[in-house]
Amino acid sequence: MQRRSISVVIPAYRAAGTIASALRSVFIQSIRPDEVIVVDDGSPDALADVVARDFPEVRLLRQANAGPAAARNRGAAAAKGEWLAFLDADDAWLPGKLERQLEMAAAPDVGVIAGGVLGRETKAFDPAPGFDALWERNSVATSSALVRRAAYQTAGGMEARFRHCEDYHLWLRLAHAGWRVVICAEPMVVYTPAATSLTHQLDAFAEAERMCVEDIAARFRIPSGQLRRRIAESYRQHARGALHVRQMRSARAFLRRSLRYRVTARQVVDLMAASAPRTLLDLRRWLRGGDTPVGSPEAGR
């Protein structure tokens, strides 16, 4: 049987220092992709020079800065492969990633195949999340995602108006349209946190997730009570992420926003803990057995 063709799409901005590592991780795969496309999203650094000089086999597209969604859409439109393998320019794949994913690509209704992120907990993830499961939690790491190009095109690609959570928005639309999402728990990608300030990251992702689920709820007529619960839980999880890295002011702000949408005993306790002295916070963490937060800046990439 003929092997399925793969086009790698890498959106890149200010990535001159990381693009080589990302590309090397592509070219060491046991199954080589049919083409590799880097979209220079108006990067002001030497990104294009690095790609052209060190990776002449890579197809380099250039555009004015429009954000990662527009860059991925540009790359997907130029791609010829049956499958689109997305990778951010500051991340890297682990060996065998593509080979493992192609083993799960046989069924015609599979639209997205994703893997785990090295160092991130995945055992609680649903291996085949439908729309309802994805609505509750984004378990697709974009740099691990292998997406059927036909599904991507039918959905209209990613929403370029979103600078964050544009990927999560797409996964929800694909799942709602009936495409299967498959999650492999084993690590397939090494994720690099963004260089922007942690406080800015936390706030930007929290607000982007709110706008994302509000838009999805409007599209698919999700009841307002269900939407409010989802937004409240999103803010609570982001508060846990802020607590984990001792961003106390951000944690309190997220919990207050959460309470605007839904009031629960857990949220009140969390807000009290976030307002308590650091020693009490440390005691609370110890009593909870080192509870690991899932609301972190990298969530939905």
TrEMBL record:
Keyword Transferase among UniProt keywords: yes
Pfam families per the record?
Glycos_transf_2 (PF00535)
Please give one Gene Ontology molecular function term for this protein.
glycosyltransferase activity
Superkingdom field: Bacteria
Under the heading InterPro entries, the entry gives: Glyco_trans_2-like, Glycosyltransf_2, Nucleotide-diphossugar_trans
- Is Acyltransferase found in the keyword set? no
Keywords of this protein's UniProt record, alphabetized?
Glycosyltransferase, Transferase
Annotated CDD domains: Glyco_tranf_GTA_type (cd00761)
Q: What positions does the domain Glycosyltransferase 2-like occupy?
A: 7-124
Q: What PANTHER family does the entry give? A: GLYCOSYLTRANSFERASE, GLYCOSYLTRANSFERASE EPSE-RELATED
Q: Which family does it belong to?
A: Belongs to the glycosyltransferase 2 family.
Name the chain's protein. Answer: Glycosyltransferase family 2 protein
